[in-house]
Design a protein that fits this description.
alpha/beta, Urease, subunit C, domain 1, TIM Barrel, nine-stranded parallel β-sheet, 36% helix, binds zinc ion
């Protein structure tokens, strides 16, 4: 049986329907959208603003457990940066078990849903036991993440990470043994995970190269060819140009800046997500934007790491696709991430409304531009089939509460400005993934159990 909803204000690619009628088939896809009630149907009324669910394009779920736990300096550190943070992250990696991995992921996935995200691209690299011995089920750790996503109802594009070196020409460190595969074992893992799709409707599987530091050109070529043979349309993700240190290392080792190297050596196209892409020169901006790849910006993680700032205005001005990820999960809030991006640039450039440009004299709202661009970029990076409330797409619907403080008195024209740039309370009230409600009235049925398990995992990891 299909379901029909009458939504007070319904987000559309080119505006709003007030009200909008959304008909959802039992396969979880949108059958029709209309401003007029379809004949003979009984509609369930939903008050507030209905917007599409966002795909979070970059996550390392377990790093949620480090948020708020590395915000201090000690006498022995000359400088605190991504690389010193990484030492703390590796200490946690050494202690992670399948159970704690799953418990942390369940909490972070629940948080994503509560902030209006309906899918995640999980860049998963802790594959083996501490010391590097594979689990008897080689997909054990991936399966734990898939189970956490299934428990919460979040869609997932699983990106098992290929990782083979501790830097260009460097062997892996002991902790990194948990991340390492041979090319054949890695492709075997992807094949196994692709088999999980029959049991999980909202699961997809893509490929991730950790970085040009951790993968040689020959290895990259081999795993990309193997993936191509299994799924020619698979999503392809890579960490790139996060820090100036990485840019220098790749330039010295491979003879070009990282994004330039990819432009010269890999067929960059719309299947690719360039995670971070923070340090780009003018020709890399033009090349990456024209390639159709999506830049995966993780604003609060990059800020907390002190990485640098994505060239948003230039990239957006070159019509480059971009989206947002919450990466280390210092925040899982859509509004905080997009506000960091827009307002950080305002501080840097000393002007307002940095990416919105008036259209033939008509006002263009920053909240709308930020949301719609991140929505399209997230869908492109995840390939989940949502990203718009139009016929044929997956029914991922987020209802914003018009009675929440940031939205009080707003209408469709300014509601996204109110949510993303105008207040701090989270207005997300109800969340549907593929036609099924997973958050109702801000709560998830498994919430209490998920929190209990997380607390237990943290006690174990910090004991
Ligand atoms: Zn990352």
């Amino acid at each position: 049986m299909s379901m029909l909803y009458e939504i007070e204000h319904l987000h559309q690619p080119n505006g709003w329907l007030s009200p909008g009628y959304l008909e959802i088939g039992k396969d979880g896809r949108i059958l029709s959208v209309s401003g007029v009630k379809p004949e003979g149907g009984t509609a369930t009324r939903l008050n507030g603003f209905g917007v599409p669910g966002l795909s979070n394009l970059h996550s390392h779920a377990f790093q949620r457990a480090l948020a708020g736990r590395t915000e201090f300096v000690t006498g022995e550190m000359a400088e605190d940066n991504l690389w010193t943070w990484r030492r703390a992250m590796y200490q946690m990696v050494d202690r992670l078990t399948p159970e704690t991995y799953q418990a942390i992921a369940a909490l972070v996935y629940l948080e994503m849903l509560q902030f209006g995200m309906t899918a995640v691209c999980e860049f998963h690299y802790v594959h083996h036991q501490a010391g590097g011995k594979p689990h008897s089920n080689r997909a054990e750790m991936s399966d734990r993440l898939i189970a956490a996503a299934a428990k919460t109802g979040l869609g997932m594009t699983m990106l098992p990470v290929f990782y083979a070196h501790g830097g260009i020409g460097k062997p892996v460190e002991p902790t990194q043994q948990r991340f390492v595969h041979s090319v054949d074992d890695y492709l075997g893992l992807i094949d196994t995970l692709r088999g999980r799709k029959k049991d999980h409707a909202n699961l997809d599987v893509g490929l991730a190269l950790h970085s040009l530091r951790a993968v040689t050109p020959d290895e990259a070529k081999a795993v990309l060819a193997g993936m191509q043979a299994m799924d020619a349309k698979a999503r392809l993700h890579i960490h790139v140009s996060e820090t100036t240190h990485e840019v220098a290392e790749v330039k010295a080792g491979l003879g070009a800046r990282p994004v330039q190297w990819l432009l010269d050596n890999v067929d960059l196209n719309s299947q690719w997500c360039l995670v971070h892409a923070t340090h780009l020169d003018a020709s890399e901006i033009a090349g990456a934007a024209a390639s159709g790849a999506v830049a995966g910006i993780c604003p609060l993680t990059e800020a907390t790491m002190g990485d640098g700032f994505f060239p948003l205005v230039e990239y957006h001005g070159a019509n480059g696709a971009w989206g947002i990820g919450t990466d280390s999960h210092y925040s899982t809030s859509t509004a905080e991430e997009l506000r960091m991006l827009e307002c950080g640039k305002r501080l840097e450039l000393r002007r307002r409304n940095v990416i919105a440009r008036p259209d033939q004299g008509q006002p263009v709202h920053s909240g709308r531009v930020l949301f719609d661009t991140a929505l399209a970029g997230g869908e492109q990076a995840s390939g989940q089939g949502g990203g718009a409330l139009v016929a044929g797409r997956r029914a991922d619907l987020v209802m914003l509460d018009a009675d929440s403080n940031p939205l009080l008195g707003h209408g469709p024209e300014t509601v996204l400005d109110g949510w993303l740039l105008g207040g701090t309370q989270n207005p997300v009230r109800d969340v549907m993934v593929a036609g099924k409600w997973v958050i109702r009235d801000r709560h998830h049925p498994e919430e209490a159990a998920i929190k209990t398990n997380y607390r237990k995992a943290m006690a174990e990891l910090t004991a």
